[in-house]
Amino acid sequence: MSVRNTLAVVLGSVAFSALALTGCSAGAQEQPPAPAAAPAAPAPVNFAAPKKGEIDIRGGKHGNQERVVFDFSALPELSEVKLMKHEVNKQKPVWGGSGEPVDGMKGSQFLHVLLQTNGSPWVTAGPETFDLPTAESGVVNDNEGGTVELTVGLDAGVKYDVEVQGEKVVINMTRA
Q: 173 with 162: CB under 8 angstroms?
């Protein structure tokens, strides 16, 4: 073999080895890792709208307070809600008219709220139970003749505030 051919074979071998060691840099480059997917945003908490003709009763935490909401917005005949009086006592709620006890109400004390309404059909709701430390249950137990009684079952005495916000009655409370 001539020196020229030997030189060509050696140079070709060196070039081939260099390409093999570098991974043929033209096409075998290591890809950078794909960016991590952004964490999914938490799903918003949506309360289902009450069905037409039904009263929605719900309870939850709002800051350091517990909140119970009685939502009358699905009663199309209702035109006005006014707060008349409220009190906490140990008297268990009864169904208006019959005086029968409301089964399923939890609590050792009860917050009774009396409202005056215009155009409210005779509709009761509940009782609903809540997974809260103090407010245990709620019911619309009397609704006739333009007055409505709401009752919240409590496991302890509370400091509370009752507000009418349009067609909703909002009760904020903390343990006394």
A: no
Rounded to two decimals, the pTM is 0.69
**152 burial level (CB within 10 Å; 0-12, 13-18, 19+):** buried
Going edge to edge, which strands form the sheet with 135-144? 80-89, 109-118, 147-154, 135-144, 125-129
Per-residue confidence in pLDDT tens, the chain, 176 aa: 444 443 344 334 444 444 344 444 444 555 555 555 544 443 333 445 556 668 999 999 988 899 999 999 888 777 788 999 999 999 999 998 788 999 999 999 999 999 988 876 777 899 999 999 999 999 999 877 788 899 999 999 999 999 999 999 999 999 88
Q: Which residues contact 30 (CB under 8 A, 6 or more apart)?
A: none
Count Cα neighbours of 83 within 13 Å in the Cβ-side half-sphere.
16
Q: Which two tokens stand for residue 77?
A: 């005949």
